[in-house]
Amino acid sequence: MLSITGQPKRLCQGMTRREALTIGALGMSGLTLADLLRAEEAAGVGKSHKAVIMIYLCGAPPHQDMFDLKPDAPAEIRGEFNPIDTNVPGIQICEHMPQMAKIMDKLVPIRTVVGSPNGNHDSFICYTGRSFERQPAGGWPSLGSVVSKLKGPANPSVPPFVGLSPRAGHPPYGSPGHPGFMGPSHSAFRPNGEGAADLLLNGISADRLQDRRQLLGSFDRLRRDLDNSGMLSGVDTFTSQALGVLTSSRLADALDLSKEDPKVRERYGKGDPRNYGDGAPRNLEHFLMARRLVEAGARVVTLNFGRWDFHSNNFSEFKNTHGPQFDQGFSALVEDLHARGMDKDVSVVAWGEFGRTPIINKDGGRDHWPQVGCAVLAGGGMKTGQVIGTTDKIAGEPTSRPVHFGEVLATLYHRLGINPESTVNDLSGRPQYLVDHHPVMPELV
Q1: What integer pLDDT is reported at residue 205 of this predicted model?
Q2: Is the whole-model pTM more than 0.85?
Q3: Across residues 50-74, what is the average pLDDT?
Q4: How far apart are CA 77 and CA 69, in angstroms?
Q5: What SUPFAM superfamilies does the database record attribute to this sequence (predicted)?
Q6: How far apart are CA 189 and CA 299, in angstroms?
């Protein structure tokens, strides 16, 4: 094992940075971190730059119990919750999200998200704006992978695309968004996944690493001269990412929450770091970590939150676990971005893969409803303090302004400075549009 010299630093969980960021041998075969970046794909799994934080609400939250309450509907539809006023006249949301109600002028709830291909659980639609049922060779790439390809790293020490998504019992609930035909070099770096220990060297000086880097480069040139298949085309990207991370503490510092102001950490809260069933954790520290990663240089950070598939006990599950915690984490993130002057550059979106049934079932739950769902956006210099879309009297169908997932993705690309009408080549060399001709949302720009 190799280790970089210096005094150990304690992380917030009590382990040393040296313990948390150990790397295996460096030799002709490359760095362990570079291998990690490849393995993530094989397993299927500065303040001023433009960035996106996407929060995937695993399992699909109940839209009519969050942003589209129907207090005049029959009891079997309206449920147990009451709407409350927000700081924007005329906009009401659920009583169990009071912190978001206080900052509605900084938010944009969308009540009419459409485009879910079916009622199956999958994060794919949120990350790509497309159906997973019809894909080109290699698959559609996620937002983070596209941005990684087109924009590259904002800082060489920080991957452009980071996914805060621990493994989940249902794999799509743990997905950070896949690279598709962009290739494994543009997959998400996952500090919570296998190999999270491989962020810094352990016991080797930077000068000695440079010597080994030059030696490795010599072997790579030899291998490239001998290779006629193109299979080594991704090696440089992997190795460059790995060496950039290993020769700087910038990424490790961003992940070290002990460096954060205690008052800020308290505002975000902790939540629960354990996976919720076969879903993701309700880890509020991931919201803070996302902000720190963007500050450090990440362009896209995805995080997965909870398991909202409330086929039974919808109201107790929402009221006692997911609702108030999401309210705390999301509102803290938005307020923090504004306090740090990052709100014009960092776009935030939270959503799930579809909505929930208007009628409450016999077990007190709501079932799958792909006809309409919800989202909430913030930041990015977007026009906030408005609600977009209306549904019928039972929140079952849009009656005005249906918003496709792809329109939200197009708007996020636009805020990143990427033309959503751009094309990228798939594995066959055929050009593919980023979001299949969905327009930028005029209400937001």
Answers
A1: 55
A2: no
A3: 98
A4: 10
A5: Alkaline phosphatase-like
A6: 12
